Every structure is written in C-alpha cells, then in structure tokens.
Amino acid sequence: MAKIINEVLFKGYQSQFIQGHEISLPELNADQIKDLSGDVNGSTTIHYVNYSLQISKLHKFPFYTATNVDGEMFKKAPRKDYWRKDPRLSKDAQWGSELYTTANSQFDRGHMTKREDVQWGDTVAKALYAADSTFYFPNAVPQHKRLNRVIWRSLEDYILHTESKVNNLKVCVFTGPVLSDENPFFVTRVDNSEVRIPILFWKVVIFQKNDGKLYRVGFMMNQNKLLLEDNIIMDLENDSDLYMKFKDSETYQVKVPLIEELSGITFSSAIDIYNDERSLKLILNEIEIDPDLESDDLDPKDFLGFTIQNIVL
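RESULT FIELD:
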C-alpha cells in the first residue's frame, strides 16, 4: 500500500535554516531549467521532509538535492527500506524498480540525500518520517556497489562535529550527479529506452564557523572504472575531462567552482576554504578511544571514531 504524503511535514529545504543567513537553492542553467519535470501542481521543486530536489525530464535523475542537517535534533530510529515512486510526479518522469532490478543492474539505489542527514526533528516519529522520505526514487541515482562511500557518507558528520558553530550543529548539504550527454549508456535498455548512467558525483557543504561567517567546501567521486569493469556501461572511448578526472572510486576534495563548471549549477556564495587547482584524495583513519576518558576530555573527532586525512576545513 502506498504511503500518503503529509504535505504539512513535506516542507522541504529551508533557505534560512542557519540563523542570520540566507542559503538559497542552487541555480540551474538555462538548458537545465528547460529540462525540469514538474509535479501535479506544476512545481519544479519537489519538497520532502528536511530536503528538496529538482529532477531532469531527460535523465529522470535529480540535478541536485538540497538538505538541512540538524545535528542537535538527530534521533536514532530503525531503518526501514521502502523504495517507491513519488505519486506527485508522473511515473514516466522518474526511474523506479524497472531500472534497479533489470538485467546487469549490479548497482545500488544510491541516496543523494542520505537517510541519516534528515533523520531529525522534535520527536522520534518525525525523525523516522523524515528518514522514510529519502526512499522515494527521485532521490536515487545508480551507484556501483563497490564505490567507496565510507568517506562520502561521513563528510557531513565530520564537518558538523569538528567545524560547525558550537551549540548549533547545523549545515546545508547539496548533492547530485553530473548529468551529461557524455555519460555512458547502460548496457541494458529499460522500457525500450537507453539510459545514461552518471559517473561523477559531487557534494557541497555550507556551514557556519565560530566567527559567524559562512564557509563552503566541495567533494567529488567517480564510478566510471567500476562500471566498466563489471560491464554495466558501454565503453564510449571518450577522452573528455568528465572521464579523466578522479579515475579511481575514492572521494576527492575539490574547489567549488570546479563543481559548478562540471555540473552547470551555481551555489550560494560563501567563503571558499579550498582553492587549489589540484584535487586532494581523502583518507579515513579510525580512532581507538580510551574507554576510561570522560566525555569532557574527548576531542569532537573522538565522538565520531574517525578522522579524515587531507581534508581542508
């Protein structure tokens, strides 16, 4: 049975989430705006609980998702995977199980807005409802099962607990695939249609430091090699920069203007922390915590149980 959407809770991303600042939704370019799908009410911005997205009519994947993360109001809740299409959108405007269960689909339903990021609210019930709202197919993009997402999924938490304003723990996260006509085709036709599988993913995090100013950082990863190795995509022998950047499946820190160039999307202004032309490969290091230490003696990183080597914040 399909779940009923609670429009009261489905308010989506809030631009004034971080007090005293306006962090707008990303701006698409002219071609992307023409390619937007709308819901039954004609809105091209689709709102969920604590996040919103805009979806491509041609690719049937999101251009981006925009998420408010509140670390202080996070609630623990059991995970319940229930993927379904969004009834507010045409069934033909979004890929569903027909893509993820067909022949040669050795990839996951990759969350753009991750479940834990929106799993917050003033009650456990609201947090659980928010987490459940990430299981609509417009929030998913095919991602190879062996794509190294350990660091990728940890970036928001790391920034929350090490850099965001004390006693605030709020960040805004923007995530998406690079939707391009240069993306390779999936080897299997779906509903008699060719599907271009995104190979590059990006993430931009905007947060407030103790000086009260907004800062932003960007990250990218590439799944092209993994998809080719498992014969999931066709090899187009393309020498485009889209394929040559970040050849392995690791997470790299990059400057935000590079993400804007590759994605065609413009983000809210903030102080760019990383401006190097080179890309930094990030490495996760686990921390062994002394059980005899009091919580007041712990560094914020110790609560997480890991550090991220090479990250510039």
